[in-house]
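Dear H.,

Thanks for agreeing to be a second pair of eyes. The structure we're designing against is below in token form, covering all 335 positions.
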């Protein structure tokens, strides 16, 4: 099948593209290669996606409406995995418009392209951040997610709402992917694991917010990519029996689904740092700092719906995943 993967030069898009190619699919990768973080890392990922295996790359901007309409009209995709976005909670405090362009206008352009060319299934990245300050754990997709505490989270929730309207109005099958703190080889330099590793190896102190009193459901990248690729075959169907009276918030009469993709094993940040120290064989020095605006205290995924849909759930143990990240980091940066 022919896939469009947006954000193919990004962390998750790269891994998903690799898996789709290995399964024999044709993949068109789109990315604007922006400099939110090191462009050389994005280029190095792209260099591993081989044209001989069926990969082609388009440097393009999600918010460019005519260019996106042309892309869909010319290429005719069977399925779209939309992972290109402006990520990051803290960056959204200072750069709100980057999120409106990439995550709102960009998402609308993807929906329109899918509708106009009758794409068979659109899967798109949402985020655990939509759960906001929810303290009832684990987070279930039937929980209310009406109170995002960052603009980033608000755009992810908006993506779900926009997708639902297209599923309802036009019968476009859409699947939202609520990822929970993804880590692993080729990971993002703006995320805690990468920053901690770099600082610890350089003998510098790491910034630890809320005195380390935070819990995150860290999820290994191979589990994420496996779940996404399996979900491409689970095409949401309309549910004519659904009614407002009987349906739960997670269901809909439209061909629309949302899944949590997380490890279901939240750990304290201090435990995470301890495991990283073990993997690196170096003790961390810590700057204990207050809570950052927009941050949440805990994330924790209920993945029962995911397991029911694909017979798989993330399971990689943190110590194993960290060891693989550290091995990649030392090799890639020659440290
Ligand atoms: P990433 O930043 O590594 O990848 C996103 C890619 O999209 C980048 O290569 C970037 O150049 C590209 N991009 C950004 N804006 C663009 C635009 N306007 N036009 C074209 N390309 C653009 O991030 P990631 O970690 O791979 O995340 C993928 C998706 O998953 C994002 O939607 C992100 O919000 C979501 N997500 C990630 C995590 C995580 O822990 N990594 C958690 C929850 C949700």
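And this is the sequence the design step returned. I haven't edited it by hand at all.
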């Amino acid at each position: 099948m022919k896939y469009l993967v947006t954000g193919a030069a990004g962390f998750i898009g790269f891994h998903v593209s690799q898996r789709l190619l290995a399964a024999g699919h044709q993949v068109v990768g789109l990315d604007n290669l922006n400099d939110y973080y090191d462009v050389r890392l994005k280029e190095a990922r792209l260099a591993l996606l081989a044209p001989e295996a069926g990969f082609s790359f388009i440097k393009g901007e999600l918010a460019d409406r005519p260019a996106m309409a042309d892309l869909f009209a010319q290429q005719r995709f069977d399925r779209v995995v939309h992972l290109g976005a402006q990520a990051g909670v803290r960056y959204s405090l200072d750069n709100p418009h980057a999120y409106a362009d990439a995550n709102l206008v960009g998402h609308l352009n993807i929906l329109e392209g899918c509708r106009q060319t009758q794409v068979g299934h659109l899967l798109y990245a949402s985020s655990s951040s939509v759960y906001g300050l929810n303290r009832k754990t684990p987070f279930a997709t039937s929980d209310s997610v009406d109170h995002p505490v960052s603009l980033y989270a608000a755009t992810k929730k908006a993506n779900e709402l926009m997708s639902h309207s297209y599923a309802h109005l036009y019968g476009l099958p859409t699947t939202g992917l609520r990822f929970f703190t993804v880590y692993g080889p080729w990971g993002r330099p703006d995320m805690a694991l990468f920053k901690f590793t770099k600082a610890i190896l350089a003998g510098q102190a790491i910034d630890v917010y809320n005195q380390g009193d935070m819990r995150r459901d860290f999820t290994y990248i191979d589990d994420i990519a496996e779940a996404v690729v399996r979900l491409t075959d689970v095409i949401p169907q309309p549910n004519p029996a659904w009614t407002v009276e009987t349906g739960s918030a997670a269901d809909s009469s439209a061909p629309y689904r949302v899944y949590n993709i997380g490890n279901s094993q939240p750990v304290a940040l201090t435990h995470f740092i301890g495991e990283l120290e073990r993997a690196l064989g170096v003790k961390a020095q810590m700057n204990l700092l207050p809570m950052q605006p927009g941050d949440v205290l805990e994330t924790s995924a209920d993945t029962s719906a995911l397991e029911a849909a694909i017979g798989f759930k993330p399971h990689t143990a943190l110590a194993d995943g960290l060891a693989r990240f550290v091995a990649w980091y030392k090799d890639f940066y020659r440290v």
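Two observations from my side: The chain has a mean pLDDT of 96. The radius of gyration is 19 Å.

Warmly,
E.
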